[in-house]
Amino acid sequence: MPDLSSNTGGIRSPNPFWLASAPPANSGGQVQRAFDAGWGGAVWKTLGQPIQNVSSRFGAHSVAGAKAIGFNNIELITDRSLETNFREIYDTKKKYPKNAVIVSLMVETREEWRDIIKRSVDTGADGLELNFGCPHGMCERGMGSAVGQEPKVNQEITSWAVEYSSIPVLVKLTPNVSDILPHGLAAKRGGAHGVSLINTIKSIISVDIDRMVPNPRVDGMSTNGGYCGQAVKPIAMHMVAALARDERFRLPISGIGGISNWRDAVEFILLGSSSVQVCTEVMLRGFRVVEDMIEGLEEYMRTHGFANLDAMIGRAIPKYSEWGNLDLNYETVAKIDPALCIGCNKCMIACEDGAHQCIHPAPAGSRVPVVDEAECVGCNLCQIVCPVEGCIDMAQVDNGFTPASWNQFVEEGRVLRPKKGAH
Amino acid sequence: MVSTPLDPNRAESVFADFKGEYTTEQATLEASRCLYCSDAPCVKACPTHIDIPQFIRKIATGNLKGSARTIFDANILGMSCARVCPVETLCVGDCVYNLLHVPPIQIGKLQRYATDHAYAEGWRFFEAGVDTGKTVALLGAGPASLACAHELRRRGHGCTVYEKRPVVGGLNSTGVAPYKMKADRAADEVDWVLGIGGIDVVTGVNVGEQVSFKELEARHDAVFLGMGLGPDTRLRVPGEDLPGVRGAVDFIEEMKLTPMSLAGVKHAVVIGGGNTALDAVREARGLGVGHVVMLYRGDEAAMSGYAHEWAAAKVEGVRAEWRAVAIGFEAGADGRVSGVLCQRLDERRHPIAGETFTMSAELVLVAIGQSKLAGLVQSLGGIEVHHGRVVTDERGATGRKGYFAGGDCRNGGKEVVNAAAEGKAAAQAIHAYLTGGL
Ligand SMILES: Cc1cc2nc3c(=O)[nH]c(=O)nc-3n(C[C@H](O)[C@H](O)[C@H](O)COP(=O)(O)OP(=O)(O)OC[C@H]3O[C@@H](n4cnc5c(N)ncnc54)[C@H](O)[C@@H]3O)c2cc1C
Ligand SMILES: Cc1cc2nc3c(=O)[nH]c(=O)nc-3n(C[C@H](O)[C@H](O)[C@H](O)COP(=O)(O)O)c2cc1C
Ligand code: SF4
Ligand code: SF4
Ligand code: SF4
Known about the structure:
The complex is a heterodimer.
Chain A (H helix, E strand, L loop, with lengths): L5 E3 L2 E3 L3 E3 L8 H10 L3 E7 L10 E6 L2 E8 L8 H14 L4 E6 L4 H13 L4 E5 L13 H4 L2 H14 L4 E4 L8 H9 L4 E4 L3 E3 L2 E3 L4 E3 L9 E4 L4 H12 L8 E4 L5 H9 L4 E4 L1 H6 L4 H14 L28 E5 L9 H9 L4 E2 L9 E2 L9 H5 L6 E5 L9 H7 L11
Parallel strand pairs in A: 3-4, 3-16, 4-7, 7-8, 8-9, 9-10, 10-15, 15-16
Antiparallel strand pairs in A: 1-2, 5-6, 6-14, 11-14, 12-13, 17-20, 18-19
Chain B lengths: L23 H10 L7 H5 L6 H9 L3 H11 L3 H7 L6 H4 L12 H15 L13 E5 L3 H12 L3 E6 L7 H4 L8 H12 L4 E5 L9 H7 L2 E4 L3 E4 L12 E3 H10 L9 E5 L3 H12 L4 E5 L11 H9 L3 E3 L2 E8 L5 E9 L5 E10 L2 E4 L3 E3 L2 H4 L6 E2 L2 E2 L12 E3 L2 H4 L4 H19 L4
Parallel strand pairs in B: 1-2, 1-4, 2-3, 4-17, 6-13, 7-8, 7-13, 8-9
Antiparallel strand pairs in B: 5-14, 10-11, 11-12, 15-16
Helix pairs in contact in B: 1-3, 3-4, 3-7, 4-7, 5-7, 8-17, 13-14
Bound molecules: flavin-adenine dinucleotide, flavin mononucleotide and iron/sulfur cluster (3 copies).
């Protein structure tokens, strides 16, 4: 039985699945129900000076047949009083001593940070998360991503928090920067025990094309919101990996962004996350999604022989490299399995209009299109559009060339194979 | 409205749709399942080659007007076809999902969704072409002539449709099973097609009787033959003239257009194994007859009717008597039919001596085919008739100058969609002929 217990910068939880700081972790009732459902931890909805929210606050990016693959919000931090929140955090921690409760914070002045950190620590919480990420509303008031985008300010506030706190401090980073590394390093210099990322991405989710007003529409107006949900996962994973692979960083990471099932979680862990946080998937489908996440992770660890999470964290990082190190002599071509092909010709139109014009119509009496392997560049497009799992194999070609990357070509003069499809 | 008002109490009105209407949610979900194939097999299977992936994608994006335009541009009878096409053997039968053993896309229901919307919204897509001064006579107001006339109008030719019945729409009004489409919807379609303007319909005129071909030739520049098939074929066995023994197509026409009572009919026997027989058994059940038996000379595998229709009939409680033929009808005390005398056949369809039996029947529907009407034109020089079908080239031109044909009278009896395709193709040939191209 693999050990799922997780440790992120000293914050321990029975499994790596945490609720992200967001509406599902807004109150004691919710967090306790989440723990009952199996969640290992929860980052409480960000506390600060209580605010007032707009009424219409969420929007979704839906495509035919798949609702809300992307999600956005323009809500702010908690709108409940600090007293209520602290009382509920205290009660929750008392009832669930094994689960991780992390208090997310966002205030302005040094005095405010000192005050709120003291009160947070007094609840018995396991850790703090500094919200330097919110990309709407709070940043207009000099907080959230306004802090996260300035490494100096980030470092300074982090150092205050570490000074005032007797429990681990995570810094939640904003993805609204061109390079995440300086921001991760700033948190490290400030003394953070770990980072969480990503917070939401600045976005306009959609436009009401009849009223000609962006959504979510607040009467006749709108504002940019924060984008999250399944669609942001690739962006989030890149940022997690960009920190995890850098020698200078080496801090624990709590991965966030578009995690909706155990497979996503496994990917984040392989890219260096010690724990993973989930918001949108829970908002859309409820706490119960964690059951499958736990089972799936456990089974994955079993089949791959990982006794504990440490054995697995960051395992894909060594294989994340520069383009210049990729083997240009590695060659693949598309091979269609005629027994599986259903004759939809999606590969053909994709290659014809979007790739290299090397899939030709099926000969009379067959429904299987024909790949001209001499012309196929091995781009994967046909495999991507094929509706049948396993029907198109991108098969490696033994072309007799020894591996040669661009860097090896430039530095050592290695021989590159002739280009394909570059007429 | 050219159609005569329909009787609201006509017998067919008791039937509900066998395949229901989609809600927007259902349609969008189903549409988004479509793989948007290229050179799609479903399109190849459609005689009118509707660009199915394109119209379905437009449903998924909420572009219903564009979706309907795609359908009607290929097939102006897309609304009735959506309901009456045997999609299981056409587009849906060839959907690639079948090969994945995943339910195929419900193309007919999606087509119905888009076309019903267009009708409800009153969207119109086509305008008549600039008047060419030429006119065409069309025989019969069935699907073939309607499709032909509409295409001719898009090219600016005048059209006069001559219909012998008081109702227009051909078998779409008088023949198709009411659980697929009722006569009022067929009438809506006629109005929709005629909406392009410039198509005159004269009803109650039997060409060959009230008006001669000679007269048509004098009045018009070309003639389209779209008169379909004739009355039910008769069995020619003793007792066939007893009250209660009827041709199935004749019975169906009465059911579709007038009130009818089957009180007193406890048993019905339908003779035949084709699609008309399968419609008739389901219709008899639907009208409340308790025991309905299909009497067919072959076995289940040999039946020419569609397997999916027979499967539905069985579910509805119809029984079959395989390998037997009717050799006579018995009369009851009231002088009406009371039973069918049957002869059992062997595998080679030869009578087995001594094996006869009688089935009770207060209603017998003979569904062994429709006669051919080609005799009507046989005397016209140049027109060739083969097995009762009017012979044409692939575009629909007959051997007689200025005469074209399409639909059941040309293909021997297929589906509405074939009539639509052939009518449209013939219009293109007529256009070429009228503008000096043929
Ligand atoms: C019982 C039954 C059920 C069917 N069900 C289906 C179905 O579910 N789906 C499907 O796709 N197909 C079905 N079909 C077949 C389909 O109805 C025909 O293939 C189609 O209607 C043929 O169209 P048409 O225009 O060639 O002929 P018709 O629809 O037969 O139209 C011919 C018209 O010409 C008129 N006419 C004939 N002679 C003359 C004349 N001398 N002068 C003037 N007018 C004349 C007739 O009155 C008729 O209105 C069914 C057929 C039958 C018999
Ligand atoms: C409605 C909503 C409110 C949020 N509020 C907060 C917040 O108060 N503090 C915070 O740090 N992150 C907040 N987030 C960001 C989430 O914690 C998380 O970082 C982000 O949604 C990405 O994860 P996901 O793809 O699983 O949703 C919020 C997100 C949503 C959708
Ligand atoms: S891999 Fe790319 S180039 Fe090769 S057949 Fe597929 S789409 Fe065409
Ligand atoms: S996309 Fe796949 S199933 Fe479709 S034709 Fe190509 S190989 Fe066959
Ligand atoms: S074959 Fe099926 S999946 Fe493909 S385009 Fe046609 S309906 Fe869509």
